[in-house]
Amino acid sequence: MSLLAKAKKGNNQAFLKLLQDEKVKLYKMAYIYMRNENDALDVVQETVAKAYANIHTVKEEQYFATWLMKILINTALEMLRKNKKNLLMQEQLPERGQESSYDEKLDLLQAIEQLDEKYKTVILLKYYRDLPTKNIADLLECPEGTVKTNVHRGIQQLKKYFNRGGEFYGEQYKKDN
Fold it and tell me: What's the pTM value of the predicted model, to 2 decimals?
């Protein structure tokens, strides 16, 4: 009997084993959305609770990770909307000798933060989670063409951001287009 089948029958140990491989990925994705440890942990906790309550809806074990990530993304977006938080990114200070790499990561994450949610989500799933377009489309329940378009548009907006020397394109971007 598979872990999923056992978990569906109420075996808590099987459910925990299913979560084991995903816990770090869940936290990282939650942190990217929430930008602080406490809120990210809240999102992960809420995601696990929702997953536990709805484990019976997963059809096949191979889709468990995708199903779980979809719950996490929806939970993070729901918390952001509910709390209307707009926190600045809080990262640890870089170690000596790591300044340029840290600055580059921080710049990229700040730029990604400025994207509309639909662009940010596909960029994060494609480049941070290394998911193929088909999996992203399944996860977001939209056509593959929409995913490709949103990735392309997200990248174009990131290019504009960096071509302007890091100027936030929010208001300026709207004036130019």
Answer: 0.64
